[in-house]
Amino acid sequence: MSPLTVADYRALARTRLDDRTWDYVEGGSDGERTLADCAAAFDRYRLRPRVLVDVSTCDTATTVLGARLAAPLGVAPTAYHQLVHPDGELATAAGAGQAGTLFVVSIFASRSIEDIATVATGPLWLQLYWLRRRDVLAELAGRAEAAGYGALVLTVDTPRLGKRVRDLRNGFAIDPAVSAANLDPALMTLTYGGRSGSSALAEHVQATFDASVTWADLAWLRSVTRLPILLKGVLTAEDARLAMEHGAAGVVVSNHGGRQLDAAVPGLCALPEIVAAVAGTGVVVFDGGVRRGTDVFTALALGADAVLLGRPALWALAAGGATAVTDLFALLRAELSGTMALAGRPRLTDIDATAVMRSEARRRLD
Ligand SMILES: Cc1cc2nc3c(=O)[nH]c(=O)nc-3n(C[C@H](O)[C@H](O)[C@H](O)COP(=O)(O)O)c2cc1C
User: Fold this and answer.
1) How confident is the model over 270-292, as pLDDT tens digits?
2) Half-sphere exposure of 125 toward its Cβ, with a 13 Å CA cutoff?
3) How far, in Å, is the centroid of ligand 1 from the Cα of 106?
4) CA of 258: how far to CAs of 33, 227, 262, 340, in Å?
5) 311 lines ligand 1 (CB under 6 A)
6) Coil, strand or helix: which one is 253?
7) Ligand 1 pocket test: which of 78, 106, 295 has the largest number of ligand atoms within 8 Å of its C-beta?
8) pTM across the whole model
9) Does the beta carbon of 123 lie inside 6 Å of ligand 1?
C-alpha cells in the first residue's frame, strides 16, 4: 500500500538506509530532549473547530517572499541528499517543484546549485552557514542570485556543532563519494575522516565556521547580495527584533530539529512571541517536528507564514526519489486541506490564534 502518513515514509526509509546514515538523519544532540520536544510540543495544542461554515472549497495556496506555493510548505535545508538517494538534490528539487513546494537548498548540497536550478520547477532558496572564508560566501550569494534563487537563509544557531552522540559513537564521516558540490574540496577534507569517538562533521565545523560573527557582521552579507536574507535558528523575541532591525526579511523559527542546543525551547513555544516581535514587518517560517496536516495548521494558527520539513523530505527521498517527495507534500497538503475543512477555516487567513487552544491532552499515536 502506498504511504498514508508521513510516518509511513519514515518506516520505508528505515529499510533503505544503513545504521550510520539513519542515525545521522534521525539523531539530535546530547540527551535528545529538544528533539523529543519538537514533536511533543504539537500535542500541547488542540484545535477549536467552527461549524456551519462553507468549506466546499479550501484554498491552501500562498505566496511567501515572492515564492508562489500550492501550500505553505517547504523542504528544510538538509546537507548531502546523495547520502540517501543517488540523484540527491536533483530529485528533491524535481519532486518539490511538482508539488508546488519551496526547496531550501543546503550550503552542503551534494549537487551544484546551478544543476538544481536547472531541474527545479518550483521556488528555491539557498541556506548558508557563516564560513570563515567570506570570499566563498560572497561567491555563493552571487551564484545563487544568478541561478534564480529567491532568498538566502543564513543559519545562525551553529557557531559549532551540537554534541551529536550517535555520530560520535559511530565515528560518522561523509562518504567521499558524496561531496559538497558547491564548495572547494580543499575546504571539505575534514568531513571525510571518520574515527570512533569523534565526529568528522564537528571537526569540520570547528575549523571552517566563523564563531565570532555578531549582528554587526550582517551588514557585510547584505552588502554582497540583493536577495532577501532570512535568519534561521531564531528562538526568542529579542533576537527576532534584532533580526528585523538589522535588515532581515524574516526569520526561521527553528532549533535545528533538536541537533544543536539540547534543552533549547521547542520552536512551537517560541513562535507566538516571535510573531508578536516581528509584527508583520517580515516573514516568519517555522520548522521542527511537523509530521501531519494538523501540525501545519497549528503552526499557521500560531502565526507562521509557512513551515519547513527536514527529516520527512529525506525519508521520502530515500523511499522513492522525486516521485515520493512529490507524494509526501501532496499528502501533507491534502491533510492540511482536510483539517481546514473539519475546523471550519477554508482560507489560510481564517487560521488565526482562535483556531487553537492549549490542552492537557498529550497522547500521540506515532
Ligand atoms: C540530516 C539533517 C541535515 C541537516 N542539515 C542542515 C543544514 O545543512 N543546514 C541547516 O540550516 N539545517 C540543517 N538541518 C536542520 C533542518 O534544516 C531543520 O531545521 C530540521 O530538520 C527541522 O526539523 P524536522 O527534521 O523535525 O523537520 C539538518 C537536519 C537534518 C535532520
Assistant:
1) 999 999 999 999 999 999 999 99
2) 31
3) 9
4) 8, 28, 6, 29
5) yes
6) strand
7) 78
8) 0.97
9) no
